[in-house]
Amino acid sequence: MDNYSADQEFEFIQSLYDEANQQLKEIYKNQKQNRDELLSELAKIMLIYIIADNLMKMSKNDRNKEYLRLSKMINNFSSGQAKFTENVMNDILNSTVKNTYNFYSYNAKLKDVKEIIDNNFKGKHFSTRVWVVLCQ
Questions:
Q1: Helix (H, G, I), strand (E, B) or coil at 132
Q2: Which top-rank group of organisms is this from (predicted)?
């Protein structure tokens, strides 16, 4: 293990944060795209149906049809977002562990990296923590 100055370690750690932030921007970009698509659908509904006295005039069948369509869209967005987020988080964790091992001249094998990522943190597995956060 090499001895590094405080500045070198700071720069290395900062690079880890910067790399992770770049990857997290992809998650935000995906969320924004989903939001924009949903808002577009809501705008279309508002243009199709008459709004009078702050109430939208829709038949019960139309209301149920639109509700089911929007619910399906939101569920698809949520499940896709959860999978995408989990993949990005796994990429960030893999990259961080590998870069840290390389920086400090450790000899990490893929099995070691996977074991570190798959271990529990505060009693919860990584994917469980992601789902808990997404469901809140």
A1: helix
A2: Bacteria
